[in-house]
Each structure stands twice: as C-alpha cells, then as structure tokens.
UniProtKB/TrEMBL annotation:
Xref: PANTHER family: DIPHOSPHOMEVALONATE DECARBOXYLASE (PTHR10977)
Official protein name in the record: diphosphomevalonate decarboxylase
Keyword presence, Lyase: yes
EC numbers for this chain: 4.1.1.33
InterPro entries the record matches: GHMP_kinase_C_sf (IPR036554), Mev_decarb (IPR005935), Mev_diP_decarb (IPR029765), MVD-like_N (IPR053859), Mvd1_C (IPR041431), Ribosomal_Su5_D2-typ_SF (IPR020568), Ribsml_uS5_D2-typ_fold_subgr (IPR014721)
Biological process, per Gene Ontology: isopentenyl diphosphate biosynthetic process, mevalonate pathway
Record lineage: Bacteria, Bacillati, Bacillota, Bacilli, Lactobacillales
C-alpha cells in the first residue's frame, strides 16, 4: 500500500461530560456524553504510507517527536494495520492550530484528524460512524470530533457500538468564550484523574446516574432550541463532574483561584440578564457558553478583570474533512 491522506478535525467541548471508563483498553465510557464542536481550534494531519520506511515517524508542528510519543501514534495506527492488513510504516505530520496561550487539550482533534487521514491514505472507505470508534481508541473525547455541531457519544456495550452520532449542525446563535486562566501542564491527566475518581469517589455512581438523565434532557433542549436549558444542563454537568474529584482519594481539583473568579462573574452576569453558562474540563480554564450575538458584550464585561489575550472566542465547528485537492 502506498498513499497519502490529509484531514482536518476540530476540537470539541463536552456539555454533558465523559468522566470514567468501564473498559480502559477499549475506551468504553461509563456514561454517554454530548459535545459542541468548536471552529477556533483544529488539527491538520497528513499521513503517508511508505513501504521504504523502517519505522513510523511522527512530526508535530514540524518537530520530530520522541520515541515515546511516536509509540502512542504507532499503537493507534496498528488498529488500522491489523484490521486491514496494512504492512507499510507510516509518516504522520500534524499541525495543531490551537492559539498558543489556550492551553487546551488537543487530543480530541488530533486523533480524529489522524483517523480521517489514514482512512484516506489507505483508501479504507470507513464510514464516519465507524471511524469514530477508531478515534475513540486514541482518546475518548476524539470520538465526538468526527462530527460537527452538537454530537452525542453513545457509550454502547462493546467496541463496535460505542460511537458518535451527529445531532444538529445547523447554524446556531451559540458560541464559547474561553478564559485562559493558566496554560501550564495539567496537575493530573484526564486519563489518570478519571480512573482515580471511578475507583475511589463515593459520589461516582450518582454522577453516572445523573449524567444519563441530563443527557436525555439535553437532547430535548437541542431539539427545541432551548438555549437556557442547554446552558443550565451544561453548567450543572461540569460542576457535578468536578465535585466527584474533590471526593476522590486522594482528592484533587483543577480549579484555581482565577477559575473561581470566572465562575462567580458568570453567575453574576446571569443575574444581570446576560445569559451565559460555564463549563470546565481537566484544567483550570473556563469555557463560557453564550449566544454569538452576546459574545462581544460578554468579552467587554470580562475585560475589566482579564486581558484580551486571555479570552478566545469560538463559534461552532464542522466535522472532519479532507484537505486533499483531488
Ligand atoms: C473532562 O478524552 O482526554 O474533557 O479517553 O483517557 O483520552 P481519555 O480522556 P479524554 O477525557 C476528556 C475528559 C473531559 C470531558 C469530556 O471531554 O467529555
């Protein structure tokens, strides 16, 4: 096999969070989750199958990556090589388009773009739903980055039925303002953090139960285009997830003093009639869900406390697409 493929994937932010696996090997989640794909952050990946290569090569932002980083990519590529009997070694060249200060995880867009690029390079013709099961094996949240707009990742029962489905990618008056509180390395990776939470938090079973209920409500709110309900459910899902971490053993939190400041500002602004809701992931940055038409106002309100380069705006992003000309 010889060939190249080029693919772009956008990152996504969960509105109903994924936090915990029932199978770590297969990346089967404990609960279904739901996200919004963002247009501001994406990864472009080129894959070249090359019989002449002795081993896989991984370049990120033009820099050759370490053996350890390359091994993670090789293991992921093996999923395709095994299933489709591909023997060639592979060169992966990725460019992350994430504003340098954003400090946002890029594993979601990275594995979705890689899955798309290998699908094209090896002419596998894997459909998007099935492709999302491959992306999942790189990083759980990557499952959802295959599609644009609102996306559900159904937890499923086994590897083949734990996939993403697109819910709505119509033009919405919705966006996110990301407040960058700190872009240092995470104190604990999401992979380790969720594992510890599942194993030790007495609140974990309640989290799973409440997520399933929130998901049903969220899907209704999307169908009825009920922005307020979407925001309330998203904020609640994020805060409940973070509460499970404080109750883990040993306890941990991604909150920093400035994260709390943003949370308080969001709640105040809401009281003043500016409808916005927050969500947070495995890091201290706060993402604020708002109407696109309120974005400038929101930014202005926050600019008394946060600098211009601490605030990044994003609209809704699309699903993966090929960057090849032919
Ligand atoms: C808090 O997808 O990064 O962002 O599956 O172990 O790679 P792995 O974890 P990852 O976890 C994401 C956790 C989250 C919530 C979410 O995106 O749903």
């Amino acid at each position: 096999t010889q060939g190249t493929g080029r693919c772009r994937a956008h990152t996504n932010i969960a509105l109903i969070k994924y936090w915990g696996k029932q199978d770590e090997q297969l990346f089967l989640p404990m609960n279904s989750s739901l996200s919004l794909t963002l247009n501001a952050f994406y990864t472009d990946t080129k894959v070249t199958l090359d019989q002449a290569l002795k081993q896989d090569v991984f370049l990120l932002n033009h820099q050759k990556q370490s053996a350890e980083q390359t091994l993670k990519i090789s293991n992921f590529l093996d999923l395709f090589r095994h299933k489709y009997s591909i023997s060639a070694k592979i060169c992966v060249e990725s460019i992350n388009h994430v504003p340098t200060a954003a400090g946002l995880a890029s594993s979601a867009s990275a594995f979705a773009a890689l899955a798309g690029a290998i699908n094209e390079a090896a002419r596998l013709n894997i459909g998007l739903q099935e492709l999302s099961t491959f992306a999942r094996r790189g990083s759980g949240s990557a499952t959802r980055s295959i599609f644009g707009g609102f996306v559900e990742w159904q937890k499923g029962t086994c590897s083949t039925d734990s996939f993403a489905i697109p819910l709505d990618d119509a033009a919405w008056d919705i966006g996110m303002l990301i407040v960058v509180v700190n872009h240092r390395e995470k104190i604990i990776s999401s992979r380790q953090g969720m594992k510890r939470t599942v194993e030790t938090s007495p609140f974990y079973p309640a989290w799973v139960k409440s997520s399933e209920k929130d998901l049903v409500e969220m899907k209704k709110a999307i169908v009825t285009k009920d922005f307020s309900k979407i925001g309330e459910l998203a904020e609640s899902s994020a805060l409940k997830m973070h509460a499970t971490m404080l109750s883990a053993q040993p306890p941990f939190t991604y909150f920093e003093p400035d994260s709390i400041r943003v949370i308080q500002r969001v709640q105040e602004l809401r009281k003043k009639g500016l409808e916005c809701y927050l969500t947070m992931d495995a890091g201290p940055n706060v993402k604020i869900l708002c109407r696109l038409t309120d974005m400038d106002k929101l930014k202005q309100e926050l600019s008394t406390e946060f600098s211009q380069d601490q605030m990044i705006l994003s609209g809704v992003g699309s699903g993966i697409h090929s960057l090849s000309e032919n």
